[in-house]
């Protein structure tokens, strides 16, 4: 990960050779001197005028710029798509739980949603699509044919048979119509994929059931049969040749099925934000933690944000999107965004116990609409409070339709627990994403004077009633104010001055060419009244400017020289008055609900104008007067956010509001250590306001040129938006100067029209969408025209254009952002994300280093163990938090788990009497805490899929560790394999179950033998006692996994070679000495997935299914995707044990 420093002479020279029209990269173009009381002309400005006539572009350069912008394809009339697609089919309600009427996943969920959508008139506003059935070939993009066939047979089972099969999975039920409805649900999402990628619609939502994100390759799980979103992603890639898909999972439960499908695939970026509570919440997987980031080529493409407490609020979710998801997604550049849209994190949901609101989900939806050119599809997952579910779906659908996001009731800032999770997630991902890199001045610790984390209010917060959302009914969306009379202000002495009348006329011509002006509501401009001007300017100054209307040319020249970088003509006062009044007109229209947002194409600009002085081409501060006018007509101190993205610091605006906490002023500008206009230290990061306004002035001071899309978006994600959401403005005003645009003769920066569109879109989530852009600077006619057109298109509701970030943020820019964050952390809680210890409870953490990320192990994936006589207990279902493993296992389930207890002073050998676990019951071995190398048959809790652990997995508890603690992952031979399950043994077991009444019971002798062995491994304790001691934090707990007792691939095991086995033999391909496996068909030795994955490659080329680990002597079957123990394997294991330990394996016969 590298970046070129801003001050690189080599880079500067190289750019000049390749592009002679590049903007100047020194500060000599700064048209200013220090602002202040001295009213004198700027020698630097005069010098620039004489040398280059303000850097006027040559005709060739102008033509080059126009050609460059032609690639933007801003022909908006041709590109606008009809709207939002919706799939809602009543057939999806034709299944329910036959044996438990209270099961939370039922038809009433869709009934409630439909009633809400009808009540709000949303059904008629959407483009309706008929659901279709997913074909087997489509489902096989993710699921095995054997599994699909098994699910298909459920159509013909009776209730008893369905219940027996359902009980083999975790938290599911089956109905004769389950298969049909699941196929219809998957097909519904595929129909929307076709419509979105076929340009029939812009975006869409599939209101479907059953949910899908827990379903795995060959396994039902957590109410889910087929993984709709995963199938849709693969379908988009195969049919529509989409190369990059982003999947966002905001269901309160981790979508482990989706993660396992893509965890080695760099073409799919998976982001999940879910309740975790250090592994105590379903599905109890370490793979759900921040430390799991994918495997092999997929490293960095799995992102988990785990919530470790209940009561998480909108601010926490928004922070996760801003700090993690959006920066990574912009670098990833998805071509399609799919959302596993569960609404069980809403207030009132009995499963999630979170405190988000429907307005919060509207915000999340809006943020995602800026990606992939707006190609976004939401697929319903969970949500079990009927009112919350219905209102959450409605809010997201409103947003997809282009309605403004409602204001958040009390957004606040992310809590300390959320900041901790985000810090660890960012640390894990930083080596893989350039956009996440931090400056050298990375924030260390949270030591802010007068601030104590413990003193902050922390959740869980008491439940509150859901707010009633009001959706505005607008006759027009975007207002446009412009008056040709503003062109009457011009320079009498310099025809090449950059602030020319054509600036506004060229913008209007471009808006008309693109059909944008016709889509706006044109509002008449009027001059500002004296009362309006006097809210920000002194009466003496207003009178002084008015007097210029009657001055002669010589007097005008003399008066101009009294101000800094100013020219005055007889029409100047009227034009400035009109520009300010036009801005006030737009404010009136927005606050009255006549329009939602708007643009003011006005001149002269205003943000440099002081209370009693003109400055930098500016006379009246239009933005400041508009803000005061908004507060006046609203009747209270309206909270107003002013964002100033003009390349020059808005010194006038800052001074007018520097003592006012009702106006938050954020400026991003070139500062160049005080040498860039308006010069001096007014725009420095340490200027934060005064008195009651302290903290409400925020300056991001760039100290060099070439700032572009990457830098501005980094500032938006890390600083501007976190503060803005915490401030929660009621109106947003933008000092929209476009002199930071590419090829501007004064700015020397590189913002693109697409970049401006994205900045605008991100601000539109604030203040209920009430945002006004008021033109400030910008002196390249083509740049400002295209940039304002891009912003207008976005305000009109069109998705921002695709944005390609050519490079990561410059290191100097990151230093500037970090500097401002350091200054403002004391004022804004949202900026206090630092390194915080992540107490992972039952799980230890991985070491996050740039050299080697060691993710969790997927080797022990989805073993389906038939739990004889066990029944599905909906009350113990997936959404019920499990404080301990004991509570999560139904009493009637025969325990097949092993708990190994080690005190801090006891060695693994002592705990087991120096012996490994009897292989007839479990593949578990001991764990050396010194090296943290797991030897539990290669299995960890990572891929356990059950809250009542199917297959007998039990949580491991180790001493708490911070996110920097080291852990070496367990051994596994599986490199790149999607977690799967074989259904040959499943079908075989189902046959032995004699489907019809009940499962066969295991022989009592077998159960007694298992219980004896469990007690032995637990240190000669009663097994119940060992479970009781599970939560003792003074001891380290481990678990064992029950392997398959038979698999159909055992016939592939060949006799042991005459020379025996050598467990120290290196990999035959790369010579690695660690984590090697022996093929039980040919006895060749190769390394595991964590080395170079040569055993997996051997399996793929030879088809040999069974391999033996030389680390822990476990046996893995590639065909079954499971660990296997059988009598046929004992001889080879015993030989290996003799070679490894010099003695026979205990209990080997």
UniProtKB/TrEMBL annotation:
Cellular component, GO annotation: axon; centrosome; dendrite; histone deacetylase complex; perikaryon
SMART domains hit by this protein: ZnF_UBP
Instruction: State where the protein is found.
Output: Cell projection, Axon; Cell projection, Dendrite; Cytoplasm, Cytoskeleton, Cilium basal body; Cytoplasm, Cytoskeleton, Microtubule organizing center, Centrosome
Catalysed conversion reaction: N(6)-acetyl-L-lysyl-[protein] + H2O = L-lysyl-[protein] + acetate; N(6)-acetyl-L-lysyl-[alpha-tubulin] + H2O = L-lysyl-[alpha-tubulin] + acetate
The protein's superkingdom reads Eukaryota
Q: Which GO terms describe its molecular function?
A: actin binding; histone deacetylase activity; hydrolase activity; transferase activity; zinc ion binding
Coiled coil stretches, renumbered: none
Q: Which InterPro entries match?
A: HDACs (IPR000286), His_deacetylse_dom (IPR023801), His_deacetylse_dom_sf (IPR037138), Ureohydrolase_dom_sf (IPR023696), Znf_RING/FYVE/PHD (IPR013083), Znf_UBP (IPR001607)
Q: Where is this region: Disordered?
A: 1-42, 842-861, 872-893, 928-983
Q: Read off the Gene3D superfamilies from this record.
A: Histone deacetylase domain, Zinc/RING finger domain, C3HC4 (zinc finger)
User: GO annotations under biological process?
Assistant: epigenetic regulation of gene expression; mitochondrion localization; negative regulation of cellular component organization; positive regulation of cellular component organization; regulation of microtubule-based process; response to stress
SUPFAM superfamilies registered for this protein in UniProt = Arginase/deacetylase, RING/U-box
Question: Which PROSITE patterns does this UniProt record tie to the protein?
Answer: ZF_UBP
For this protein, the record's PANTHER family field holds:
HISTONE DEACETYLASE 6, HISTONE DEACETYLASE HDAC1-RELATED
Full protein name:
Protein deacetylase HDAC6
Q: Give the organism the record lists.
A: Phyllostomus discolor (pale spear-nosed bat)
């Amino acid at each position: 990960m590298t970046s070129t420093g801003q001050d690189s002479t080599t880079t500067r020279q190289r750019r000049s050779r390749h592009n002679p029209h590049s903007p100047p990269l020194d500060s000599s173009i700064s048209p200013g001197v220090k602002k202040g009381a001295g009213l004198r002309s700027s020698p630097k400005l005069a010098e620039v005028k004489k040398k280059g006539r303000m850097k006027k572009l040559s005709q060739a350069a102008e033509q080059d710029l126009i050609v460059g912008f032609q690639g933007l394809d801003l022909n908006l009339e041709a590109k606008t798509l009809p709207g939002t697609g919706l799939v809602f089919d009543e057939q999806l309600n034709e299944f329910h739980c036959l044996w438990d009427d209270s099961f939370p996943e039922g038809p009433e969920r869709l009934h409630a949603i439909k009633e809400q959508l009808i009540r709000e008139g949303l059904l008629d506003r959407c483009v309706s699509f008929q659901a279709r059935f997913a074909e087997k070939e489509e489902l096989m993009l993710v699921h095995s044919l054997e599994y699909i066939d098994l699910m298909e047979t459920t159509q013909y089972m009776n209730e008893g048979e369905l219940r027996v099969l359902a009980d083999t999975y975790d938290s599911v039920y089956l109905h004769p119509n389950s298969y049909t409805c699941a196929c219809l649900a998957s097909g519904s999402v595929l129909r929307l994929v076709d419509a979105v990628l076929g340009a029939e619609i812009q975006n869409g939502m599939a209101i479907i059931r059953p949910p899908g994100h827990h379903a795995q390759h060959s396994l039902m799980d957590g109410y889910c049969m087929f993984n709709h979103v995963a199938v849709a992603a693969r379908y988009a890639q195969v049919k529509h040749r989409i190369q990059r898909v982003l999947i966002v999972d905001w269901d309160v439960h981790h979508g482990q099925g989706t993660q396992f499908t893509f965890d080695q695939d760099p073409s799919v970026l998976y982001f999940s934000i879910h309740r975790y509570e250090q592994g105590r919440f379903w599905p109890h997987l370490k793979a759900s933690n921040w430390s799991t980031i994918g495997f092999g080529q997929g490293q960095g493409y799995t992102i988990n944000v785990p919530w470790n407490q209940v009561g998480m609020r909108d601010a926490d979710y928004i922070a996760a999107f801003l700090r993690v998801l959006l920066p990574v997604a912009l670098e990833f550049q998805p071509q399609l965004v799919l959302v596993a849209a569960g609404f069980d994190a809403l207030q009132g949901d009995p499963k999630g116990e979170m405190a988000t609101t429907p307005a919060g989900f509207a915000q999340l939806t809006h943020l995602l609409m800026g990606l992939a050119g707006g190609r976004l599809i939401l697929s319903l997952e969970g949500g079990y409070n009927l009112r919350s579910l219905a209102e959450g779906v409605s809010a997201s659908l409103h947003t997809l339709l282009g309605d403004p996001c409602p204001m958040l009731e009390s957004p606040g800032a992310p809590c300390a627990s959320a900041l901790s999770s985000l810090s660890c997630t960012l640390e894990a991902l930083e080596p893989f994403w350039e956009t996440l890199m931090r400056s050298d001045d990375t924030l260390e610790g949270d030591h802010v004077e007068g601030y104590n984390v413990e003193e902050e209010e922390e959740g869980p917060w008491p439940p509150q009633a859901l707010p009633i959302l009001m959706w505005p009914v607008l006759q027009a969306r975007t207002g446009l104010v412009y008056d040709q009379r503003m062109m009457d202000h011009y320079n009498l002495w310099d025809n090449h001055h950059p602030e020319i009348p054509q600036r506004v006329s060229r913008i209007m011509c471009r808006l008309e060419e693109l059909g944008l002006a016709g889509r706006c509501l044109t509002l008449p401009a009027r001059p500002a009244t004296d009362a309006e001007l006097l809210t920000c300017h002194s009466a003496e100054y207003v009178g002084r400017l008015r007097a210029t209307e009657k001055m002669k040319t010589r007097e005008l020249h003399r008066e101009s020289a009294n101000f800094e970088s100013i020219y005055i003509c007889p029409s100047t006062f009227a034009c400035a008055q009109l520009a300010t009044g036009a801005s006030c007109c737009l404010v009136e229209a927005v606050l009255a609900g006549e329009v939602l947002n708007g643009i003011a194409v006005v001149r002269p600009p205003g943000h440099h104008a002081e209370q009693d002085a003109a400055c930098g081409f500016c006379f009246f501060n239009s933005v400041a007067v508009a803000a005061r006018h908004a507060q006046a007509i609203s009747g209270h101190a309206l909270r107003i956010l002013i964002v100033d993205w003009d390349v020059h610091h808005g010194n006038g605006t800052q001074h007018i509001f520097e003592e006012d906490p009702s106006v938050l002023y954020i400026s991003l500008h070139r500062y160049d250590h005080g040498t860039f206009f308006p010069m001096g230290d007014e725009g420095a990061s340490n200027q934060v306001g005064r008195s009651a306004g302290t903290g409400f002035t925020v300056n991001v001071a760039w100290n060099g040129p070439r700032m572009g899309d990457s830098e501005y978006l980094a500032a938006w994600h890390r600083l501007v938006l976190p503060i803005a959401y915490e401030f929660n403005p009621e109106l947003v005003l933008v000092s929209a100067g476009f002199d930071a645009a590419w090829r501007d003769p004064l700015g020397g920066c590189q913002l693109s029209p697409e970049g401006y569109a994205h900045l605008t879109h991100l601000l539109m989530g604030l203040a209920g969408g009430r945002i006004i852009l008021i033109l400030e600077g910008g002196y390249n006619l083509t740049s400002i025209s295209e940039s304002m057109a891009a912003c207008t298109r976005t305000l009109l509701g069109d998705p921002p254009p695709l944005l390609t970030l050519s490079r990561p943020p410059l290191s100097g820019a990151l230093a500037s952002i970090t500097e401002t964050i350091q200054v403002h952390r004391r004022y804004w809680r949202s900026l206090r994300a630092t390194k915080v210890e992540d107490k992972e409870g039952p799980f230890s953490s991985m070491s996050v280093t740039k050299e080697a990320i060691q993710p969790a192990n997927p080797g022990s994936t989805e073993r389906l163990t038939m739990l004889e006589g066990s029944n599905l207990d909906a009350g113990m279902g997936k959404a019920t938090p499990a404080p301990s493993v004991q509570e999560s296992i139904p009493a009637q389930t025969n325990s097949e788990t092993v708990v190994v207890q080690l005190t801090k002073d006891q060695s693994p050998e002592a705990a087991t009497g120096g012996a490994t676990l009897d292989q007839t019951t479990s593949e578990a071995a001991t764990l050396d805490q010194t090296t943290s190398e797991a030897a539990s048959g290669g299995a960890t809790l990572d891929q356990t899929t059950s809250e009542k652990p199917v297959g007998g997995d039990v949580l491991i508890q180790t001493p708490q560790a911070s996110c920097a603690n080291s852990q070496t992952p367990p051994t596994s031979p599986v490199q790149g394999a999607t977690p799967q399950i074989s259904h040959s043994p499943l079908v075989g077991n189902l046959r032995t179950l004699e489907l019809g009444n009940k499962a066969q019971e295991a022989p009592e002798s077998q159960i007694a033998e298992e219980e004896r062995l469990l007690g032995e491994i637990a240190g000669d304790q009663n097994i119940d006692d060992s479970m009781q001691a599970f939560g003792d934090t003074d001891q380290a707990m481990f678990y064992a996994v029950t392997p398959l007792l038979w698999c159909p691939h055992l016939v592939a095991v060949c006799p042991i070679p005459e020379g025996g086995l050598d467990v120290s033999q290196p990999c035959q391909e790369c010579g690695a000495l660690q984590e090697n496996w022996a093929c039980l068909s040919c006895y060749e030795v190769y390394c595991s997935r964590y080395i170079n994955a040569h055993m997996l490659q051997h399996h793929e080329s030879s088809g040999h299914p069974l391999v033996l680990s030389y680390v822990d002597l476990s046996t893995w079957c590639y065909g079954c995707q499971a660990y296997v123990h059988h009598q046929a394997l004992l001889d080879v294991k015993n030989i290996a044990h003799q070679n490894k330990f010099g003695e026979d394996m205990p209990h080997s016969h």
